[in-house]
Amino acid sequence: MLSRVVNNISCYSLNNGNMLREVMVKIGLEKIDTQEGVTVEALLDSGVIRLVMSSEFARKQRFKLKKIERPIYIRNVDGSFNKEGPIEHMVEVNIYYQDHRERTEIDVIGGQK
């Protein structure tokens, strides 16, 4: 249950009284092929090694999917394979945050069978 939001940090109460913090930031995503942009809230995760977006979001926003050479199999924290299946596509975007712009690739997870 969401207990409060302070300075873009959502704090969730856990059963043992500790707080779980999620940092959401507003970013801009610009499609490389059309230069169309969309503003979204993204979860900031300092431990992340890949950027991902859902196939549903990619489809709704009409991102151009690019097939990757080899599927990437994702394991859950318990070691099982993710039910969404392997990552088989990605999108190329410019990410905008405040005064910073960076061209990058974002993996698309789920629903590409």
Which percent band covers the strand fraction? over 45%
Helix content: under 10%
Point out poorly predicted stretches: 1-13
Characterize the largest beta sheet: strand count, sense, and whether it forms a barrel: 8 strands, mixed
Number of helical regions: 1
Number of strands: 8
Sheet/helix structural class: mainly beta
Encode the helix/strand succession as letters: EEEEEHEEE
Cα Rg: 16 Å
Mean pLDDT: 81
What's a quick, concise take on this entry?
This protein is mainly beta and 113 residues long. The protein has one helix spanning 55-60; strands at 2-6, 9-13, 19-31, 37-44, 52-54, 66-72, 87-97, 100-109. The chain is built from one helix and eight strands; from the N terminus they run βββββαβββ.
